[in-house]
Amino acid sequence: MRLDADVLDAAHDLIGAVVTAHGVRARITEVEAYAGPADPASHAFTRTPRSAIMFGPPGRLYVYRIHGHCCANIVTGVDGVASAVLLRSARIIDGLDVARSRRGAVDEAALARGPGNLARALGITMSDLGTDVLGGDAIDVRAAGKRGDRMASGPRVGVRRAADRPWRFWVADDPTVSAYRRHPRAQVEPQPG
DNA sequence: CCTCCGATGTGCT
DNA sequence: GCACATCGGAGGC
Asked: How far is the CA of A66 from the C1' of C10 (A)?
């Protein structure tokens, strides 16, 4: 996985990768790229205590809370370059009963559909902030065999600024992928040229 | 399709 | 203090 390369390459590589966390294994089916200071939608557009981790080395987990939910990102880019890939959806491979106990009575395809639901199903909380997912810690992300799935891309979900950059990537026609929701006050970004 | 709203932390003033 | 957010479920049209 090219986590130290361009964040769009890293996002591509994370589709199909397998994440293991707290008794559940899942194959990633949907991600979004956030390009740091070059990206008004990124938490690292400005450097704050919360976003500082994204300015560090790749492979660490950036977890944040929003509206009472936790969301998990993989930090990308070499040390000093701030960017990250949000894990939005996944298909549970192993530990279905554990995931169900965390998520309640929902369809199997919906257990880890959407970033808040994914973190919940995998038991990821703020205590996992900073975990090195490449280093044999409690949470692990690794490339899996190529599956020949068709990849699709489009605008990111729920962002107000830079709302039209097609930096969301997902496995085409996969029922575990979340629906697109545009931010109600999405801003139009000036087009170059 | 759309709009509302609970939920709660972060960052700005 | 306060606006707003990488959300998600429910409900209306």
From this structure: 19
